[in-house]
Design a protein that fits this description.
The chain has 396 residues and is an alpha/beta fold. It has 2 domains: 276 residues, Divalent-metal-dependent TIM barrel enzymes (TIM Barrel, Alpha-Beta Barrel); 92 residues, no CATH class. It contains 15 helices and 12 strands. An 8-stranded parallel barrel has the order 1-2-3-4-7-8-9-12, surrounded by 5 helices. Strands 5-6-11-10 form a 4-stranded antiparallel β-sheet. Helix 4 runs parallel beside helix 10, helix 5 crosses helix 8 and helix 14 crosses helix 15. The longest helix has 22 residues. The radius of gyration is 20 Å and the shape is globular. The structure holds D-mannose.
Amino acid sequence: MLNTWRWFGPKDKITLDMLVQIGVQGIVTSLYDIPAGEVWSVERISELKSLIESQGLKWSVVESLPVSEAIKYAGAERDRLIDNYIQSLENLGKCGIRTVCYNFMPVIDWVRTDLKRPMPDGTSALYFDYSRLAYFDIRVLGRKDAARDYPDYVLAKLPGLDRTMTAEDIHSLVDTIIVKTQGFICGNISEGDAAPLEHFRSLLSLYDGVTKDDLRANLVYFLKAIMPVCGSYGIDMCIHPDDPPMPVFGLPRIVCNAEDIRYILDSVDNPHNGLTFCAGSLSAGAHNDVEAMAREFASRSRFVHLRTCALLPDGDFVEAPHVDGRVNLVELLRIFRRQDPSLPMRVDHGRDMLSDSVSGYNPGYGFYGRMFALAQVEGMMCAVESLDGDENVKII
Ligand code: DNO
């Protein structure tokens, strides 16, 4: 598989020549400074592409070309925004970029409650603590009827948190959930936003009354509108699963399980309507059999994110080392390599290790942790390549 790396553009502290040294072949990136809804011009795309190519690398995947909220909730300006999206795709197509990852998560992309949860070996990991999420939603955000969305065992932990959470803890929880995880990926709220909670509440209100069926219909509307330009330029759109794969903050989410993915791929049954197979996001849901999903959806997967979570009691999860979570990444590599040995793959959300924690990298996107994970995955890939032809060898 094509070994790629998510790079955050010329301002990334991890430079392209560092990536060349560690054997990266393809770059996954975006025009991070262009707000969602604005057109990506040929000039801006070519400029970044040339920079990447000047280091002997290739711009393999756009992650993401963000979809504006009004397209997701079907606001009055949706058709104009879809036209802009089509124009950006056309410009990408003219520049020869053919794989575009995007998501359709309303308001908030990935959700974590801890960015640096200490691990026994001295590294740190991204962590999702369900009761702290409920605390944020019910006590801090004060969303109406939020308590109805959580099971009793989570609600039972709130009085304990009421006693222990300090003002500083609350500030850091807000910052983690809606600011630090969102800004650097072109999310709705960025560092320096004066009133993030108020902003978040007003974004949530855009989805009042929007159901799962509505969101599905809005995605299908969007996909049908963009398929012609994808067909003309050979662009594969690949939707990213919801992370974690469950509704949050009363918002519908529509890429959570096999049935959701089947629905999306079948509703617009076009090879350019594909999937980003993010094993990590899918693995955060106990309901997902990730290896079975890989087998089922390999033929429509256009990009693979390799990572895996470990599920913990009471709905918590932690991002596991790449060799040690609930998903067998060796088996996934085998499935995807058989499907298409040139499929782009990137590791994701490495642990912070060595100097990662003091280097100011984006959360989940440190250097040493990802380099380590990439080396592990490359080792798996070599084993799969050399043994896969031999049907007597069972790789586990
Ligand atoms: C987080 C990422 C997501 C992903 C987008 C794709 O680390 O996996 O932000 O890039 O959802 O659109």
